[in-house]
Amino acid sequence: MNRHIGGFRFLLIFLMAFFFGAQAAFSTTLPANILDTIKKELPNASVRFDGLISLPNGTVYLPVLPSNPKRNAKGAVLITVPAGKKLAQLPDVVLFDSNFALLKVVKTKDGKTTITDSKNIPFVVKTGIFPQDMLVPPGLVIPDDLQIMMGDLKIATKSSRVNEIFKDTKKTANSSANTTIVPVPYMVGKTMLVTTLDSKVLSVLPSDSTVPKFTLNLENLPKFIQPVCDDKYILVASAGKTYIDVADIKQEVLAKKIDLSSQPSEVILNSDKSKAYVAVSDDQAIFVIDLKSMSLLEKIKIKGYPKNIAISANDKAIVYQDKNTGDIYTLALDETYLNRYVYNASNVSKLAIRDNNIYLISRTLNELQVIDTEIKDIIYKQEVGQKPVDMVLLNNKLYILCAAQELDIFNLEDFSFEKAMTFSGKGFLKKLVMIPGSDMFLITNISEKKYYIYDINKNSIVQTVNTNVYINDLQLISKSIK
Questions:
Q1: How many helices (H) and strands (E) in the chain?
Q2: Are residues 136 and 186 in the same domain?
């Protein structure tokens, strides 16, 4: 009996792979005609990279891939349960003219998560299969006679890490005497992701409060956090782990692991934010991740072990430094992946690249250096404030943050330099974070529980916000998280 079931399962998977063409690992990209119908009937629906469909009201649909797909289908709804419903009315079962189907996740009277009774599901749907890389809601109960639809898909328990990564912090709402702030206009409705140097917890803070709305419990100290895909997901790498966690903010689950077989240490995004380039600490490689499918595209072999990676605004090149030797290289982002040595430097805090120039800040020399990639030498250098730690290239200027309470500006048009401003406070400044749609930066302070909001045009701090933690890393999400 098991042999027959296994053979049938293999047949289903084979037919599904044939139906969806050559997309790797049963690509979770839904058929175009189905997506068109969903967008038309449910314009607010979100389709996750693994095929799961969710709506703002909390409704979730699981896609079922057909074992016997019909050709020349238009993506029209053929059958619904209850009968006669439109897709916008959110029926429990939706069967399309291609035999592709959607099953709504429902709750039983005793609170269990499941789907509609199997007797309500058409036979042609029962012969289908769920996408094999999909994360179904943890604790989902599938009727025994529908287990074959699972294939090799595993259902996480409610107590598994995928469901426990998000923790509500309502119980800590009164932990601070001053928890409410009035954000500057450009910060209204935004959310901050905050990590510290000594905690495995990532705090999610609304811009009008110093108390986290919830936290993400990581497996180890975070190496990086990066919101992606219009802030629907967060890429998280933890120390000592060889994979990247993909956290689904809306569903509040850990949706996927992307295994690199090496420890990820840094991440950068291309200009349209469709790809992530990941440096690893123990391999001579940079990994490329497709953020639409959340899948590993390729592993680029490079010279040296990369750190301080940066990408040009035109996406034509990456610059990085070998953590062992201090050698600086460029990597062409074309079919050649030409990897060229440029220069050697020590104690580099940050790199940036534009046209034929590499900009670096040296923490020990307290210096900005400009290196020409063609002649492979310094063409300009300038003293900056003490302990430069971060740098942002914006329009035609470099904004250089110095830990010893200083922000400097370097003009790229004429290589002119001005000492922009000094801070009146104390502590160790750490990071510059651009506020989208504005001419403002968030500036973090790792040794004082506060962050600043700096206005470029006014050349001044317009707000100082006290926090409950010492901020090591901070990322900004351009939406409010409920």
A1: 4, 37
A2: no
Q: How far is CA 242 from CA 231, 237, 257, 281, in A?
A: 23, 8, 10, 10
Q: What does the pLDDT profile of the chain (482 residues) look like in tens digits?
A: 444 444 444 444 444 443 443 333 344 678 999 999 999 999 999 999 999 999 999 999 999 999 989 989 999 999 999 999 999 999 999 999 999 999 999 998 888 899 999 999 999 999 999 998 899 888 899 988 899 999 988 887 766 767 666 766 554 444 444 577 899 999 999 999 999 988 998 988 889 988 888 888 888 999 999 999 999 999 999 999 999 999 998 888 889 999 999 999 999 999 999 999 999 989 999 999 999 999 999 999 999 999 999 999 999 999 999 999 999 999 999 999 999 999 999 999 999 999 999 999 999 999 999 999 999 999 999 999 999 999 999 989 999 999 999 999 999 998 998 888 888 877 899 999 999 889 999 999 999 999 999 999 999 999 999 888 889 999 999 888 76
Amino acid, res. 360: L
Q: Do 236 and 228 touch, CB atoms closer than 8 A?
A: no
Spatial separation of the C-alpha atoms in residues 64 and 342, rounded to whole Å: 52
Instruction: Report phi then psi at 183, rounded to 5.
Output: -75, 155
Q: State whether 221 and 289 are in the same domain.
A: yes
Judgement on whether residues 432 and 286 belong to the same structural domain of the protein: yes
* Domain total in the chain: 2
| Dist CA 44 CA 27 (whole Å) | 23
Residue where one domain finishes, among candidates 119, 150, 181 = 150
221 and 140 together in one domain? no
Strands 327-332 and 339-344, sheet pairing: antiparallel
Q: Is residue 159 part of a domain?
A: no
pTM, two decimal places: 0.87
Q: Which residues pair with 64 in a beta bridge?
A: 101
Range of the domain at 229: 165-477
Same domain, 236 and 289: yes
Q: Are 361 and 368 in contact (CB under 8 A)?
A: yes
CA-based nearest residue to 121, from 90, 143, 97: 143
Considering only the C-alpha atoms of the chain, give the largest distance between any 2 of them, rounded to a whole number of Å: 78
The radius of gyration computed from the CA coordinates of the chain, to the nearest angstrom, equals 25
Examine the fold and report which residue of 121, 150, 179 is the final residue of a domain before the chain moves on: 150
Q: Does one domain contain both 125 and 231?
A: no
Dist CA 220 CA 202 (whole Å): 11
Place of tokens 């060889």: 242
What is the identity of the amino acid at 454?
Y
Say whether both 127 and 208 belong to one domain. Answer: no
CA quadruple 255, 259, 260, 264: dihedral positive or negative?
A: positive
Q: What are phi and psi of 136, to 5 degrees?
A: -80, 160
Query: Which CATH number covers residue 447?
Result: 2.130.10.10
Same domain (yes/no): 48, 184: no
End-to-end Cα spacing for the chain: 49
